[in-house]
Amino acid sequence: MTITAQADEKVRPELDGVPETLLWTLYNRACEARRPDSVLHDPMAVELLDALDYPFEERLGAPSALFSQVQGLRSLTYDRAVQRYIGQNPEATVIALGEGLETSFWRVDNGRLKWLSVELPEGAELRSRLLPAHSRARVLPGSATDLRWLDEVADPSKGVIVTAQGLMMYLRPGEVRSILAACAERFPGGAMVLDSMPPWVTRLTRKGVVRMKNLPVPAMNWSMAGERRELLRTAHPAITEVHALTMPPGRGLRGSLIHHQHRIPVFRSISPAVTQLGFAG
Ligand SMILES: C[S@@+](CC[C@H](N)C(=O)[O-])C[C@H]1O[C@@H](n2cnc3c(N)ncnc32)[C@H](O)[C@@H]1O
User: Fold this and answer.
1) Domain total in the chain
2) Whose CA is nearest to atom 2 of ligand 1?
3) pLDDT tens for residues 48-107?
4) Which residues pair with 93 in a beta bridge?
5) Strands 93-97 and 160-164: what pairing?
6) Cα(83) to centroid of ligand 1, in Å?
7) Which residue has the least CA distance to atom 22 on ligand 1?
8) Coil, helix or strand at residue 80
9) Is residue 68 situated within a structural domain?
10) CATH label of the domain that carries residue 161
């Protein structure tokens, strides 16, 4: 057992709205990690799921092989981007915005990096309660839109990579722009990884018609189809690199389609996209 809660004292998460969606992404990762042919090695996600007193199937539906694989591949895409960056900047700080119960610190730690998780108070409380404390990993309760977290990096010259997995779509366009601009300005030589939903998905969420069994998907306010990612450069002149991150090849035909989606024009404009930004040094 690596997580903090014990099997006989399950933790009941008191979450609703956007923070409750962290249970959906955890559920998908854990269901994926449980498979013998999993695309993601994440035993902690399984432990977390078992430690929570939450009606996962009743609220979110039966485990879905598709959602689990997509979630596993998305996490792996972020992990690989962070690993590439810390390969060049081994003492960098990783800032994970809206991290929920992601366990990427334990998947990618090189023994030297520093980790700062910025999460809304209710998500931060759950994270601190369930996940083990670590001298190089901190949780900062607060909103990613309150840019004071930028001051928490002790030495930006050692490198900074900011991740925002499953977060930006819930923010307003002006808030996304401010976060990108502030990171570009404050973290020279830094990088950022974010994912986006295409407009047709966010439109449906605002109409209130998207749900996971009994969990209504909260309204998404910011959208971006992958083919429009170049526009992110306009947030700040120090955003000097913008590129698509390809999900690693997955399992079966679906896994192969997920991997190749950005090469197929019709999929490219209608699928979620993962993008990496680089900031001028
Ligand atoms: C879909 S979940 C993704 C969680 C995690 N990144 C993952 O992939 O499992 C969205 C997360 O964003 C967090 N969140 C939403 N708005 C936020 C904000 N303004 N500042 C920080 N975190 C926020 C929620 O609490 C939740 O943990």
Assistant:
1) 1
2) 22
3) 999 999 999 999 999 999 999 999 999 999 999 999 999 999 999 999 999 999 999 999
4) 114, 160
5) parallel
6) 22
7) 98
8) helix
9) no
10) 3.40.50.150
